[in-house]
Hints:
By secondary structure, chain A is of the alpha/beta class.
Amino acid sequence: MDIKEAKKNNATLIMLEGRLDSSTSGMLEKKLLSLMETGEKNFLLDFSGMDYISSAGLRVLLMAAKKSKTAGGKVLLSALTDNVKEVFDIAGFTGIFTIFATAEEALKDF
Amino acid sequence: MEYRLKNELEEIRLLAEAIELWGKENGIPGKALFQLNLALDELLTNTITYAYPEGGEHEILLRLVPEGEKELQIEIRDDGLAFNPLEVKAPDIKQDIDERPIGGLGIHLVRQMIDEIEYRRENGQNILLMRKSLN
């Protein structure tokens, strides 16, 4: 998995590529926690380059969403691919997260 | 197809690649392959993470046998601690973000991806016999 990050006006955009699973989710968790430590509380995770997510990935997303919310921020998601969308639906995550078709649209929401 | 993997998480990605290739050669639809790989990932991640608290190298055996064009038989054998995934309580996926506990979704995903699951503990082995419809 590759993680690219870009600081936008009111949020940090994180672009994920590859597989978010039990051997890579720790990488994303570390990245998000270290950004939170610097005071960031708004995140946009863009999934356009990510075709696979397992429960290990869902775990990190929920953890980040809860922590951001406590800090007065939020985690938004964009561009879910079909496979990722299916996992979100089955896990009930479509109801927990706000999901946008594109990163551009999501960024307007912060 | 028979595949043996070591109890290391990195092995799961390699298995997924092997299954993609095997699936294409055997005409298995892409969506079914994704669902199969996700279910195997969840089950194997559990085994590799929790079944060997004493560590050491262990081998997990996976067998995939197509039954005609419509069904796939899946068998997993490991010699780790006894674990019956059928005894895992289903999560409440309607809870909102504050109520929702972190974790506990892996076996739920498996149950949604696979049609039939049977568990046996025999001779110190966990044996999972599963069926997945390919329609």
